[in-house]
Design goal:
The protein has 144 residues and is mainly α. It has two domains: 63 residues, Arc Repressor Mutant, subunit A; 49 residues, no CATH class. A two-stranded antiparallel ribbon has the order 1-2. β1 and β2 form a beta hairpin. α1 packs across α3. It starts with a helix and ends in a 10-residue tail after the last helix. The model has no long low-confidence stretch (mean pLDDT 87).
Length: 144
């Protein structure tokens, strides 16, 4: 499950993408627009800066801005920066593979299906960009 921290990070990054080209954005403005506690947002933005997703500028006209174009930052980039791997288990992670302590990989009945879940989730999250999230969405017909 996505943590609150990752959800807030995605909302803050989409907010920054919407303000792209307007210069650095104050934390207080993002916090207010997105209803994110300011202290929590400060920590999130520092972490995103460490991962090269945002840049910061100090001073009277300081604030935060995206470090790359909104078309180049995916949801997967943000989630990995905040929550770590997308996989549900360490042995199905593509970016931080680890063998599970209690598992015999060759006979594990979980590894295959959980690997498929990881691949399907990653395919969506890696192709969904901040810019794409700002575009109006077409509603798909409701199946009954």
């Amino acid at each position: 499950m996505l943590t609150s921290k990752a959800k807030y990070a995605l909302r803050a990054m989409i907010d920054l993408a919407a303000q792209e080209g307007e210069g650095p954005i104050f934390i207080a403005d993002i916090s207010q627009r997105q209803d994110i506690p300011r202290r929590f947002l400060e920590n999130i933005l520092l972490e995103l800066r460490k991962h090269g997703l945002v840049s910061s500028q100090r001073g009277k006209f300081g604030g935060y801005a995206l470090a790359r174009d909104p078309d180049e930052i995916s949801f997967a980039d943000v989630i990995r920066a905040i929550d770590g791997p997308l996989a549900l288990t360490p042995c199905t992670s593509r970016t931080r593979y680890q063998r599970c302590e209690d598992c015999h990989e060759a006979r594990c009945p979980l590894r295959g299906p959980l690997g498929q879940v990881r691949d399907a989730s990653a395919a969506i999250l890696e192709t969904t960009t901040l810019a794409g999230a700002l575009k109006p969405r077409r509603r798909s017909p409701v199946k009954r």
